Amino acid sequence: MKKVTSIMFLSVILLLSGSLSANTFAKSPDEKVTCKIVYESWYEPSLYTEAVILHYGVDGWDDVKDVTMACKYGFDENHNYKVWYEADVEANENDTIDYCFHIKYNRGGGDYWDNNEGKDYHIVAQNN
Fold it and tell me: Name one Pfam family in it (predicted).
């Protein structure tokens, strides 16, 4: 009877420690990551564009959103004037952000979609 009790006690201890280990190593909730999406351009808002809009979704275009991108100005390493647009996107770490750009013109009207020649753009959200 002593052997049976010892074996049962040892089994209970192993089961408890196994469940504690499983809980300890359980996957934590997805960590949010902020990714900066940049659109390099020669379009200045006052001269050509009304807006550049980031059109994006996550992991196969789920939860699609449109965000007006902020226009930035500066100079590159060769002192050439440049214009770019940027927006921050928040996603879970390792999610794929699918996106394209919608450019709305203020001269001559109309608009243009830059969707990487039909392939869209993609980036994996990573915490650096």
Answer: CBM_21
Domain count within the chain: 1
Q: What pTM does this model have? A: 0.72
For 66-117, write each residue's pLDDT tens digit: 999 999 989 889 998 888 999 999 999 999 999 999 999 887 778 999 999 9
Name the residue among 41, 24, 35 with its Cα closest to residue 58.
Answer: 35
Domain membership of residue 109 (yes or no) is yes
Print the SS3 string covering the chain: CHHHHHHHHHHHHHHHHHHHHHHHCCCCCCCEEEEEEEEEECCCCCCCEEEEEEEEEECCCEEEEEEECEEEEEECCCCCEEEEEEEEEEEECCCEEEEEEEEEECCCCCEEEECCCCCCEEEECCCC
